[in-house]
Amino acid sequence: MIVYINGKEISLFDGARIEDAVLTYSPRSYKMMRKGKLMVVDRFGNTTERDGPITQGQKFSLKRTTIL
Amino acid sequence: MKIAINLFLVFTLFIVCTTNPVYAQKKSKPTEIIILHTNDMHARIDNMAKLAHFADSLRKTHKYVFLMSAGDNFTGNPVVDIVADKGFPMIDLMNRCGFSLSAIGNHEFDLGQDKLNARIKQANFPFISCNIDASGAVLEQPRPYVILKAGKVKIPVLGIIQLGDNGLPDSHPSKMEGLQFTVGIQKAREYSWLKDKYGILIGLTHLGVESDDSLAKTMPQFDLILGGHSHTTMTTPMMVNNVMIVQTGSGLKNVGKITLIVENGKITDRKYELIPLASIKSDRTIQALIDKYNDNDELKRVIAVAETAINGKEELGSLMTDAITGRLKVDFAFQNTGGIRIPSLAAGDIRLKDVYLLDPFGNQVVTFKMNATEIKSLICYSFNRDKKIDLEVSGMNYTVLTDKTGSCSDVVMCDKSGNLLDVKKEYLVGMNSYISAVYKFDHRDAGTNSYNTCSQLLIEYLGEMKKVNYSGVKRVSIKPAE
Questions:
Q1: Is B433 in Cβ contact with A16 (below 8 Å)?
Q2: Which residues on chain A place their C-beta less than 8 Å from a C-beta of chain B?
Q3: What are the structural domain ranges in chain B?
Q4: What is the mean pLDDT of residues B383-391?
Q5: Whole-number pLDDT of residue B23
Q6: N or C, fewer C-beta in 10 Å, chain A?
Q7: Which fold has domain B25-294?
Q8: Which domains does chain A have, with CATH numbers?
């Protein structure tokens, strides 16, 4: 399955979750997400929880939260 | 002439009003309806007392309040998932909160069909889904929709469940025996008559935001889609084709509140608010019950006995990976040492809580079809991260051969019988989702989620083995290349 984080193509196993995609994208970003410093936003501009499932072709971006 | 025209207009209006069922209702006062909704609660019960308080306070001031879940009520909290009567606490609390309705989500199936039947029977509210055919299955056939009544206003709510690429909801396929599924958006079209008949249509969907977007584009008959599955938090609703789409995240952190005004059988106003539950007061009675469920003796239950202490990463990792090969029937399994979170398990009783201390991450197991060269690339990558053994293993022994810099130059892998792995053979390999996401290794197979967590498999494995002994188990080693 292919998804996109900040425009970067990420190849993942079927049934992967957002956190798997962020971890593959960047372990550093993953740690920041776990600490609440980064949030994941879908292509509609909605925030998505890290345990959310993902589907083929979805596009996400990482945004800094305001609690920095 | 003027009188004749007026009579004609009056007659025409009469015909229109009496032939269209939506407008056939007598002109009535506006009806205010409050819909509270949540999705993907995943057995997180801690905010249930706040939800109860919030719903009750609205019930005191509003005549028509409906509380709904868009599915995935279960899976994600041991105090709900591992009790003998799996899922019971969740439905008990949902009943006490006064839920009116739930969609069936993919993780409802994690319970197994027998247990899901029991939970649906326990619920004081229906579970709905229009695209499940249970005629050949253990699961009792769910209703596709329900009609909610608010005085004279009737509101049809249609349930829809997501399907993965394999045509099944995302749960272990073994849980779906005998069930048939139809693509949700396709099946939903068969129910567009609900809008014609009642003038209103609400979707309680477990499809994910991308599919909800597609659903709204193909079926503008929906006034409102209360979504779930993608764990999307919407502070403002999405408007697509004049369909309002909402979702509240996951884990019962928020509740959505929709205020509908219905006049003459049609929605004339709809407002949405996302309410974080952290700031809401708790219902004391329900909080006491939650505390009781959280103080669960089940976690102290002995599931197996360690004949000797299980010491160190290699012995513990061997136990963890044996659970994967044992339960999933894969050839080999790997566990990264960083994911082994306690130094040892003492000899004697192994309790459920020990498993969650050993593996607290909730990682799922992913399986890959791999040949020996690909497995070698995984082991070499893992070793070269810190130039030390990083992957514990089941189903084989391996020796990392190192070059002068201490990096992995080759790996010798032998199966349980001591034979070198067959380079022409394809093996089924299980590993946790952390390894599959982070480690860079060759694999032509994209991998498949087993929808089992490592801890869940370990609990099942220990329950099956009753006694375990890992004293002196040695499966991995390092040797300088000659």
A1: yes
A2: 1, 11-18, 20-21, 23-24, 27, 42, 44, 46-49, 51-53, 55-56, 58
A3: 25-294, 302-480
A4: 93
A5: 42
A6: C
A7: Purple Acid Phosphatase; chain A, domain 2 (3.60.21)
A8: 2-64 (3.10.20.90)
Contacts of residue A40 in chain B, CB cutoff 8 Å? none
* Closest alpha carbon to B262 in B101, B17, B20, B27: B27
Minimal C-alpha gap between A23 and chain B (Å): 6
Cβ–Cβ gap B250/A49 under 8 Å: yes
d(CA B363, CA B474): 25
pLDDT (average), residues B280-300: 93
Block residue for tokens 């990792």: B317
- Which residues of A fall within a CB distance of 8 Å from B449? 13-16
pLDDT tens profile B13-42: 444 444 444 444 456 789 999 999 999 999
The answer to whether B39 faces chain A, any CB pair under 8 Å, is no
Q: What is the mean pLDDT of residues B213-230?
A: 98
* Calpha distance B178→B132 (Å, rounded): 11
Any chain A CB within 8 A of the CB of B165? yes
Q: Do B292 and B49 contact (CB within 8 A), yes or no?
A: no
C-alpha span between B437 and B440 (Å, rounded): 8
Cα separation, B270 vs B256, whole angstroms: 13
The hierarchical CATH code for the domain B302-480 is: 3.90.780.10
